[in-house]
Write a structure and sequence with these properties.
3 strands, 3 helices, 3-stranded antiparallel sheet, alpha+beta, 95 residues, single chain, globular
């Protein structure tokens, strides 16, 4: 991935911090402030608005790949009308 294609290029935090924060907010029924509190307990001091910003910015990026019945599938190929259970798969690197 070139520097121009890197979606994290304008952020001071590393992708290793951003990914779990966004996935924690999406996966579990937590408020932005609950995520902020959980991260603070783990030594990551960010504002709840940062969680919202990252979720708005990177949520669609992380949702580009989904697992359907245990198989990798791009979201363009996924068919929700077939009553499959979707789960977001966090990929590292180019995937």
């Amino acid at each position: 991935m070139s520097k121009a294609e890197n979606p994290f290029r304008y952020f001071n935090s590393s992708p290793e911090v951003i990914r779990p924060v966004v996935m924690m907010y999406v996966r579990f029924p937590l408020s932005l402030r609950n995520v902020e509190d959980l991260l603070f307990e783990r030594g990551i001091d960010i504002c709840h608005e940062t969680v919202r910003l990252w979720w708005n910015r990177f949520g669609p990026l992380f949702a580009m790949y989904v697992k359907i019945d245990g198989e990798m599938c791009s979201s363009a190929m996924a068919r929700p009308e077939q009553n499959h259970r979707w789960s977001v798969l966090v990929q590292s690197g180019d995937g």
